[in-house]
User: Fold these one by one.
Assistant:
Number 1:
Amino acid sequence: MEGKASIDPAVACMLEYCEAEGISTSLLRAEDMKPCPIGSGKSGICCKVCAMGPCRLTKPDQVGLCGATADVIMARNLARSIAAGAAAHSDHGRDLAFTLLAVAKGETPDYRIRDTQKLMSVAQLLGIHTDGRQINQIAEEVANRALSAFGQQRGEIPYISRAPRKRQEIWRKLGIVPRGIDREVVETLHRTHMGNDQDAEHIMRHALRTALADGWGGSMLGTDISDILFGTPTPILARSNLGALSKDEVNIVVHGHEPTLSEMILTAVTMPEMIEYAKSKGARGINLTGICCTANELLMRQGIATIGNFLSQELALMTGSIEAMVVDIQCIMEALAPLANRFHTHLITTSPKAKIKGAKHIEFDEHHALDIAKEIVRMAIDNYPNRRQTNIPNVLDNMVAGFSHEYINYMQGGLFRGSFRPLNDAIIAGRIRGAAGVVGCNNARICQDQAHTSVVRELIKNDVLVVMTGCGAIACSKFGLLLPEMMEHAGKGLREVCEAIGIPPVLHMGSCVDNTRILTVLTQMANEGGLGEDIADLPGVGIAPEWMSEKALSIGTYFVASGVYTIFGVTSPVASNPEFAELISKGWEAQVGGKLEFEPDPAKIVEKALAHIDAKRTALGLVEYDPDRFGQSGDRNIEEWLETPVEARPGGARSLAEIEAD
Ligand code: NFS
């Protein structure tokens, strides 16, 4: 990577340490190992679906040994990535459904249903009868219905009915309604096997169906069941960055994606016997923090601090302050194992699906969750006396997280009058120009957090309300962008809305699985009225400025399939084939209303996003956006009024404080 590795001062500080100690990290390896120009799709395409290859196509009209053309190879590669991403998210959702089933059947005493209201609303969405039934019976049926959505072979997955009616019709007409979550993933692998589906457009159409099985299937079930088991998030104040590690407490870091074990570890670290045990080993207590999306899960519901996003994971270990890093699934770098061994940290893998050589493996089983969590916590405490010198950067910021779609609804009118009317009205009036979901990973090929923060700052300055998830949300949390004070940097109209409702202009909506909360928000906006009848009509965009994972590709594709213009930063896997790029951009737009584009320059991403929002405003017949039209009300006006000498105020009006001071 050329230029700065990160804008995060904590990371910069740790990189200096790495350099002094000669320790390699992904950020440093990115300088030595350049991405393969053919495998990346930049100057060609590589096919490795059979053993006659890999065939590398770099010249115009070149074909593979079997005659495969560049567009078919590109479609196969991209569709397989989308299927892998959909599989990862959905398998996560499946495990949560199994946990809910175990809770409902009374097999796991350590968990309970924390949000019965959510259980009822999910039951209703799944068409499950609730009247006069016990909570456990309803939960069991919800879990079984969710599990059957994975193995279903025919028909439609249940949450399709949650989308706006017009959207459902588009999907049905195109034949891309997922029949079953697993079925679509398997079919992608089948279609892309050697000698099978060899029409790029046809392959990519099935990729849309596979991604929909993630967004409106596995991921959406994952979010809903997490809320049922652990509570639906509401706004909560929390800390962010490596400075949240403690100098004199046992540091346990949870990393990965599932809330199941990490919630139990939280229970364990708050038990008086555990705190006493930590004290007996010379620590002041126990400090639980998180990385990546496990962090987001705990943060959104419990206010547990996040110490960083994807590219911070190795650097966190180098603080020498972590007694145990407990990982479950996804986005866990193999590099952690040798690094942990250099320090005193126990790297503990817990999922039967993810072992790392060199790490300790304590397998998680929800039936004995608290016992396993306690064993892990005890192991961390026992490790505290082995701690040597620590090197914790003194960098810390605050954030407000926890904006579930239920809360966004509630904050616009309270329990009885909650709706999306105020938000839609603010967009119709031009106070808010539009909305953007800025999501996704870090990527070691570009400066960490820079694209996320610059895109978000520009959008709010232009009166675009931003919702965030995943590592993007963590990036912004490290720079205070998720605080209500950020409304100071928002455009005048957006600022007025933030003041009136009391929210930041950038809303943290959770983990990557929780991107489905954004789908629900978009649906509610479309159903509310005044902004068309479908998600594709809304003045909104999806952006993944620093993406790297296959999960991000699946998310991007289900947003496109849902009607959203989606822009990915960093690099384009379709750069060498403009016709293919056109197929998933204008081609998809003609079919589903959303398009997928890749644009590495963050300034151009914003430009494209704003142009799209304005075009959608025009198509809806809304007033033209005018940045100076608003800003004459709210706190800013009161401040200006107070600064005006009393004689110059209309009618010589005085504030209560001024009257009392006389
Ligand atoms: Ni999303 Fe969350 Fe982060 Fe990217 Fe990985 S942690 S699921 S994939 S890197 S945002």
Note: The pocket of FE(4)-NI(1)-S(5) cluster is lined by residues 257, 292-293, 309-310, 331, 440-441, 470-471, 511-512, 549, 551-552 (CB under 6 Å).
Number 2:
Amino acid sequence: MEAAVKPVTSDAPAELESFSPIDGARLGSVQAADPAEVQSAVDDVAEVQPFWAQLPLADRARYMRRAGQAIIDQLDDLATLLTREQGKPRNESYSMELVPTIDALRWLAEAGPGILSDERVAMPVFMKQKRSRHTLEPLGVVGVIAPWNYPWSIPFGEVAFALMAGNGVVLKPSELTPLIGQRIQDTFERAGLPEGLVRTVHGDGAVGQALVESSVEKIFFTGSVEVGKRVGMACASRMKGSVLELGGKDAMIVCADANLPNAISGCLWGGFANAGQTCAGIERVYVEREVADRFVEGVVAGAKALRVGDPRDWDTEVGPMVSTEQLEIVRSLVDDAVAAGATLRCGGQRDLPGLPGVGAYAPAVLTGVTPEMRIMREEIFGPVVPITVVDSLGEAVELANDSEFGLGASVWTTNRAKSERLARRLDAGMVWANDHMYSHGAVSCAWGGVKDSGLGRSHAKFGLLEGTNVKLMSWEPSRTRNFWWHPYDESLGRALHSSAQLLYGRDSDKPAALRRGAGPLLRLARKSLRGAFRR
Ligand code: NDP
């Protein structure tokens, strides 16, 4: 069935302008792609990609290192643009976006060649004369479709992984963050990668849809569940793969034996960094009753103390929301929870004096929430932490798993064995103990979710493999004939029966199997040594 996606329009504006959520200032513009022209961008990349694919892995690794240096050379400039275009605090532009991608490039350069090299395959005992290996071929040209919340680190990582695997890339950044999206292509070009190997197509969802429908071999999509499902279906109907990194509703479980000050600080960061606009941000907290009062008190005090303001200031901890639409989603979810009986302990919508942009949502803490409230079921994607008190860790796990999402989860305890027991019971792609979501910045760790949170994995060796076709290459020295080839007779079946017992069976059955099978096995050996087919 063809997926029902937004119709592709061809009346797209020629220019896509970018405005800052801080003060509404126009930051610049990029050339917007007409959806009808996306295929030609893919075709252009397809001309360059075969040359890149032929480069030895060590050479591709050298380019990754150079790209890392290219980021370092424009670090402050990129950080400033990120903060102005997306609104995250200046420090987070370094810590959550730029520095992790420099480290990612180093990891790709160091670990990539080993992971992508041919791998010898061990053959079954009755095929020992054959030699086989797995070789990982690039897919060709792949598409990367990116969200606005981490407009640098998410697409940059996807593009770098695809390139290291030998692919060319067409990137579609979010229409809210086109300027920083464009800098990804520019950075690889600065690093000396062949011009045209990475192309950027700017525009709205129709451009993304055109990329999905183009001849790209695979789509790496990060975004909402709703759009992600449509993209996945559209890919499947064209027999192309997709990696879907979608939304989350991450739970934090605070055990009575947690290091409480640390859990409070971790909750503030995991819930409010990037103004809560993080797929793996903390969206639900389950705290054991014994420590609940102290925990809630600490989180409320901490949330009130976080500095909300101009993200360009070094000491701002929460900046504006990215758009009025996003602000409205957060506001309506909190209002709905309060109307249903929850208590808003702090936070709420706030104008930023002198900054006539989108405005902020001051870090909010909700208590008295119940599982059926919308705020406990839908993705908030804003700086709101709803806290539920539980009477046991079993109850906490049950509530945490009662969600359509399954991206990340965290367990806060000083008992490592307990954390591992709980981690195994949680439905999530990633479980962190005494921390939350940090591992997106460590690309040696796999990233991805279960349930509606997505399909496939980014980062680590799994992310590299997603950009390849696994080809089996097999060599047969051709000195003998396979014993399973024609002609068939009774001795073939009898010999195979005995072989199964001799090779894999119980020791006590082996002498009898050898006696029974000796004749058929000898006939089989003679057949193998005979060259041509003969009755
Ligand atoms: P969207 O799903 O709205 O958009 C994501 C990207 O898809 C954008 O570039 C968008 O373009 C494009 N797009 C929109 N419609 C289509 C279509 N029909 N076909 C192809 N592409 C399309 O997500 P947001 O940008 O709002 O990002 C927020 C979401 O992303 C949240 O749900 C969040 O949880 C999730 N996310 C998941 C992550 C993970 O690792 N699991 C990480 C980060 C975010 P346009 O910009 O024009 O709308």
Note: The chain has three domains: 34-246+461-471, 250-442, 490-529.
